[in-house]
Amino acid sequence: MVKNYVRENVPLSRFGVLVAQLESIVASASQQSPDPLLCFDLLSDLITAIDEEPQDSILLWQRKCEDALYSLLVLGARQPVRHLASVAMANIISKGDSISIYSRVSSLQGFLSDGKRSEPQKVAGAAQCLGELYRYFGRRITSGLLETTIIATKLMKFYEEFVRQEALLMLQKALEGSGGNATSSAYNEAFRLITRFAIGDKSFVVRIAAAHCLKAFASIGGPGLGAGELDNSAAHCVKALEDPVSSVRDAFAEALGSLLALGMNPEAQVQSGGKGSFPSAKKLEGCLQRHLSLPFSRANGPRSKDVRMGITLSWVSFLQAIRLRYLRPDTELQNYALQVMEMLNTDAFDAHAQVLLLARISFLFAIIILHMLLICLTISCNLVPFL
């Protein structure tokens, strides 16, 4: 009673006024659907107010704000509105009392587990919010990754492509947020979902999201993936380079480069995390030959040019990861340059693809060399502290 009395007698701040307006919109939703433009403007102001408001004021209104945002999401808000509502939810928990992350994630998971196929907008809103919370607090809620993955598998059965896309975007953020700290069963289930269902989806936006999930696996060290799984995922990416949609090919090309870079760096592969055993780290011997050189030289048919363009992008993605993420010495790049030149030593493909590959690889090497020269120059001028 005292807490309510104090709240009622505290002058409303700008943040408090916005929360009250949001509560009013949600409360009247049964009589009148919330106006999307009004909600968009209100949520934009709310996000700004959260950033500017002192923490004491945030704590005073946090629970009401969270409840109103949750209600707006499960009412079936459209994509721009549910995006802002999800960002606002993550921001207020981050700046306020973050202990509420556990109850909020649990309520979202419960709603999604019971979600009906006749309510795709509501399900998509809850999925987007859950993904955003994983992006901010993934390391704190790794215990829920398996349940989240199971939910994503369920959402992949929806007819609406935007629901399937949101399911994979949620999974991508959950993987990136949790790193390699969840149970091995969670990662195994996620990998099964991606490779068995997502990469062959009839919607190109879902296939792109699947490629991003594979790249997310590579970025966190491939937890739960042994040498066989890494090799199989690379093979899936090579096959996807024949996709008729260029954006899909580009997404899988980048994923392929990241996966191969991880395979060439076993010390970066996650070998332990939460409960359950992970496969031992092992270098993928001959993976560049299998998944880059041979597909490039053997490509034929109407999609051969697309495949070679994709392989080119994969080489660039691979070299970027090798140099910038895994910090391999520049001397190793010489060996990869020889492999590229050997791959080009054939007349089986058109000159345009050859020139494009040489241009892209040469540009990347030039950037790396310039970077090293800048470091050397900086050291010689004794300017390191100012970098």
Automatic annotation (TrEMBL):
GO terms for biological process: carbohydrate metabolic process. Keywords: Membrane, Transmembrane, Transmembrane helix. The chain crosses the membrane at residues 363-384. InterPro entries: ARM-like, ARM-type_fold, SWEETIE. This is HEAT repeat-containing protein 5B isoform X1.
